[in-house]
Specification:
single chain, mainly alpha, 1 helix, 90% helix, rod-shaped
Length: 52
């Protein structure tokens, strides 16, 4: 059974919303990775200064 224009429009809208959610998720994970790598750098610096 072929889909109506309205069904297709609704489907497209849902897909757009899903895309936005995925983009936000990717952004959040990137920020988490950035923070984790920053923390590692700080930790290394602290260890180096304490060893000296």
């Amino acid at each position: 059974m072929p889909k109506t224009q309205e069904q297709l429009a609704v489907q497209l809208e849902v897909l757009k919303q899903v895309e936005v959610i995925i983009d936000q998720e990717i952004y959040l994970r990137r920020m988490t990775l950035v923070k984790a790598s920053d923390l590692l750098k700080l930790l290394k610096e602290r260890i180096q200064t304490e060893v000296k």
